[in-house]
Amino acid sequence: MYAAFCSIGAYVPEKILTNSDLETMVDTSDEWIYKRTGIKERHIAADNETTSDMGVNACRIAIERAGLSHNDIDMIICATISPDYFCMPSTAAIIADKLGLQKVTAFDISAACTGFVYALSIAKAFIESGMKKNILIVGAEKLSAITDYTDRGTCILFGDGAGAAIISATDNKEHAIIDIHTGSDGSYADLLMSPNGGSGSIHDTLEHTACFMQMKGNETFKVAVRTLTNDVVSILADNSIEASTVKHFVPHQANYRIIKAVGDALNLDEAQVVLTVEKYGNTSGASIPMAINDIYESRRLQQGDLMLLDAFGGGLTWGSALVPFAGKGK
Ligand code: COA
């Protein structure tokens, strides 16, 4: 059995936070943010809207587009760093319940912005081993809940949203996910972290419950460019695939300058590079499926198109994947 990427769906909350809005909150400017990051605006979940609420909306669309019924799903993996509850239950279990699935295997994974690629690799392994047939993977983030809106170094970057995909078993080799690379290096843990609230917290966790993200932006930027580039170069070489044959390069949407540097290193045309950072900002684990959904919605994604996914995030973690789209275009 092979694992096929059969459908995509996404959900974007209604409220928009523009760069001009941020100008009233911290010492920054629309010009600085756009020039340094490529971000114009990001969407923010409503106060009563949770990560699972957004995730479930994306999942419903992905299930419908795959032509499946909810009961066909035998596993749900949720990639998130902003779960509904920090210790338990998992956001995946809550999503399963909201979908009316009480017996499905459901769990979260923590690989920050690489979470969706990690989830994809787990789904591929479960399907190729014959243990599961239809796996729902979802990246869902309410990063606004863990963003410090007094820190201009981070609050300009992040947004909320969710994206989901169905990975199914197939005997059609042309639809098979070709390869996935994943890796991590915990010696860079302090570049990007939420230092409070866990057993490693340096504070009294009862008094400092906020799990705000902290980032060494400039150092992270340099490691991101190096890691993302090395990773895609190596997955293409390992599979003897030329970058020119990639239809859609779908990188994690953290910063336009990072994406541009990686695209240039691979000699990619602008038309090959999927960009959503301008309107969504960085939505961590949701960023890649939201970007795939964007090319689906705009009818640029067709059956058989080769996608090259490339992600990088806190941990540090990284991952890349060569994935033909097995679903039907819109
Ligand atoms: N508005 C205005 N000025 C700002 C600012 C803001 N929002 N944030 C930082 N600055 C200032 C700094 O204080 C610094 O001022 P100084 O020169 O007087 O000291 C100056 O701008 C340059 O700061 P620096 O951090 O070197 O900027 P940068 O070009 O590296 O851009 C980031 C900052 C965060 C946009 C960029 O480093 C980045 O995108 N990093 C990677 C982020 C990332 O990928 N994170 C997620 C991984 S999944």
Please name the defining characteristics of this protein.
5-stranded mixed beta sheet, Peroxisomal Thiolase, Chain A, domain 1, 4-stranded mixed beta sheet, alpha/beta, globular, binds coenzyme A, single chain, 10 helices
Descriptive overview:
This protein has 330 residues and is α/β, with parallel strands linked by helices. It has two domains: 2-173, 3-Layer(aba) Sandwich (Peroxisomal Thiolase, Chain A, domain 1), CATH 3.40.47; 179-324, 3-Layer(aba) Sandwich (Peroxisomal Thiolase, Chain A, domain 1), CATH 3.40.47.10. The protein is 31% helix and 24% strand. It is built from ten helices and 13 strands. It has a five-stranded mixed beta sheet, sandwiched between helices. A four-stranded mixed beta sheet has the order 8-13-12-11, sandwiched between helices. Helix 4 links the parallel strand 4 (75-79) and strand 5 (105-109). Helix 3 packs across helix 4 and helix 7 runs parallel beside helix 8 (256-265). The radius of gyration is 18 Å and the shape is globular. The mean pLDDT is 95. Bound molecules: coenzyme A. Coenzyme A (COA) binds at residues 28, 32-33, 36-37, 113, 152-153, 156, 192, 215, 217-218, 220-221, 224, 254-255, 258, 282, 312-313.
